[in-house]
Structure formats: C-alpha cells, structure tokens
Design a protein that fits this description.
single chain; Rossmann fold; about 40% helix
Length: about 280
Amino acid sequence: MKILVTGATGGVGRLVVDELLALGATDVRALTVNPAKANLPPGVEVVKGFIGRPASLPAALDGVDRMYLAPLIETNAEVCQLAAAAGVRRIVDLAGAKGDHWQAIEDGVEACGVPWVHLEPGEFMSNSDLWAAQIKAGDEVRDGYGSAASALIALQDIAAVAAHCLLEDGHEGRSYELTGPESLTRRERVAQIGAVLGRELTYVDLPHDELVQQLELSMGEYAAWYADGLRVLAEHPQRAVPTVAELTGRPGTTFTEWVRAHQELFGGGRFGGPDGLG
C-alpha cells in the first residue's frame, strides 16, 4: 500500500511521515518542493511537487493508494480530482471545524468521490508562539480575552491520528473533531508557560480594538477574524474531546508538556527547567 504525504516538510505533514514509519508503514512517498533539502528519513520516497501547483502532481500520484492531504483551499478541488483520476482510494484531509474557513477542504474532498476521512483540529499549541517576543522581553503579556478557553492540540497528536486513519480500516466517512486533553483560558496558558520557565507572568487584557491593532503586526488581515474568535471563546469555551486518545491509544499532549518541549521559544532552556538543567 503506497501512501502519499503532501506537504511532507510542513508542520503536520513532516510528523505524519514519522508517525507512519513508527506504525510500520513501508511504502511512504513524500511530496515536497525541494527534495534536496527535505531531510526525510531513509526509506521514504521523496518526490518533487506542490499541491499549490496541480500540474506538478501526476507523477507523485501514480500508484498511490492513500493520501494525506495538506490544507490549501485555492487548489484543493483540482488536487482532489487529480487524485480520483489517479486511482487514489482514500484521502485523509486536514481541515477545521465544520462550517468555518476550512469547510472548502472537506467539500472538495467529498466532491471528488474518493472515500475520505476529515480531521478537524482546533487551535494549535504552536500558535502560543504569538507571545514569545513579549515573554522574552519581560514578565507581562498584553493580549485580550484572557477568559477565552480552548482545548489546543499539539501537531504531533494531529499527525498521529492522521497516520492511524491512513493505515487502519473503519475510518472512512468519518469526521473527527480533534482537541488537546484540556481546555485552558489564555490567562491559564500564560501562567503555565511562566511556571515552566520559573517566572511569574502577568496577563494584561486589552480592549478589543487595541487587541486587533496589536495582532495586525503578526497576522495582518486575519487579526480582526482572530480577535472575533477569541470573543466567542470567552462566551462559549471550547470543550476537550477524547478523540486523540481513543484513536491512537496514547494520551493527548498537555499544554505543559508542549511548553516543556518547546520552552526555548520563550527564552527557556531546551531541557527541563529554566536553566536547561531541570
């Protein structure tokens, strides 16, 4: 069974490759724009291509049975049609919550007629790097909607679910909401980052308009959309669901575990405590 992983050097796609190998997959093909710099594990077939350029895909799709589809709305429908024509028999796509910005991914996959599995994660834990510069600079985090609660998920857990859905039977036609194991407010997340770093961080709630102005520096046109989403989460906290543990057989990554593994983003040591010796 040949499995194609698109976006194989991206944040989730690269981890999907690793998870497939860990589960015993022996015929993995990885799609990347620059095979020479991909640095993928031995035994993985690396091919050049990009889902944003559908014309580059026919050779990559040749002989493929199942495919992990990275999210790219602009060319998604055409890529799915190419996959169907090539004889792909299952697409596991990375989308988002039903009805949101990423609904076009699921629509395109379903329209092509290939059996599908939809992965619908919420916000990524890695988005917390939004606060990295402030935390490196001092002990105050200026943000907004500190009571907005979400069950953030680690990229590794999304990749693990994707690998299981690619290799196992019984998932076709299913949509899986994916979250981390706990719902935390933004204020609680900042406190947990501080605890890992051995510092006491203060969360400062900004008014909505000021928050949008600050977010525009890093998010551009998406700042208002993101801030509006935080306002919704403050009124309607996201609940955590056990899907990751149920599908992978291992607990989902907690936010504290993720911070410990990535504390250098916030100015901490790479291993353990704030001095790196923990």
